[in-house]
């Protein structure tokens, strides 16, 4: 079911400073930026590598305000890994299959994610304390 690690989401206080750090320290490049009002974040996707199942990224997340999920995460835990995202071929089917095992779903249906993806989250208490995201990439142009 899981095709790859799609990205690791990292909560940060200052998106521009973290982008500069990751570009300088690791030689990665920003491939997309977005403001996601629904999730309350400014985000940047930094390309790490391509593989058979698709690309892998670092997703930097800066909250739009303190009351957002990422804002609350920063206040409680500080900067660091917020979630791990796995690529799947069909996020709706993955939700059904995983939900059938008893894992609680934060999202019952997919929603908009970065770079045109469809995403859904699983409850961290049922996934070893890790907020887990499922990501279905848009079809590749032929």
Describe this structure as you would to a colleague.
This protein has 142 residues and is an alpha+beta fold. The protein is built from three helices and eight strands. Strands 2-3-4-1-5-8-7-6 form an eight-stranded mixed beta sheet. The two termini are 24 Å apart. Its EC number is 5.1.99.1. Residues 4-137 form the VOC domain.
Biggest sheet strand line-up: 2-3-4-1-5-8-7-6
Distance between the termini: 24 Å
Radius of gyration: 15 Å
Q: Helical proportion?
A: 10-25%
Number of strands: 8
Q: The biggest beta sheet, please?
A: 8 strands, mixed
Shape: globular
Run of helices and strands:
EHEEEHEHEEE
Query: Strand content of the residues, in percent?
Result: 35-45%
**Mean pLDDT figure:** 95
Provide a count of the helices.
3
Helix/strand-derived class? Answer: alpha+beta
Regions with little confidence, pLDDT below 50 for 5+ residues: none
Ordered list of secondary-structure elements with their pairings:
Blueprint lengths: L3 E8 L3 H12 L2 E8 L4 E11 L2 E10 L5 H9 L2 E8 L3 H10 L10 E2 L5 E5 L9 E5 L6
Parallel strand pairs: 1-4, 5-8
Antiparallel strand pairs: 1-5, 2-3, 3-4, 6-7, 7-8
What's this entry about, in short?
The protein is of the alpha+beta class and 142 residues long.
Descriptors:
142 residues; single chain; methylmalonyl-CoA epimerase activity; 8-stranded mixed β-sheet; alpha+beta
């Amino acid at each position: 079911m899981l095709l790859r690690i799609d990205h690791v989401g990292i909560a940060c206080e200052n998106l521009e400073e973290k982008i500069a750090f990751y570009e300088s320290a690791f030689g990665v490049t920003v491939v997309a930026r977005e403001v996601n009002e629904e999730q309350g974040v400014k985000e940047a996707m930094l390309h790490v590598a391509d593989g058979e199942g698709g690309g892998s990224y670092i997703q930097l997340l800066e909250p739009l305000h303190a009351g957002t999920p990422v804002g609350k995460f920063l206040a409680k835990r500080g900067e660091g890994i917020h979630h791990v995202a796995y690529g799947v071929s069909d996020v709706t089917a993955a939700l059904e299959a995983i939900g059938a095992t008893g894992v609680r779903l934060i999202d019952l249906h997919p929603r908009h994610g970065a770079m045109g993806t469809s995403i859904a989250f699983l409850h961290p208490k049922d996934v070893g304390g890790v907020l887990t995201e499922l990501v279905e990439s848009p079809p590749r142009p032929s």
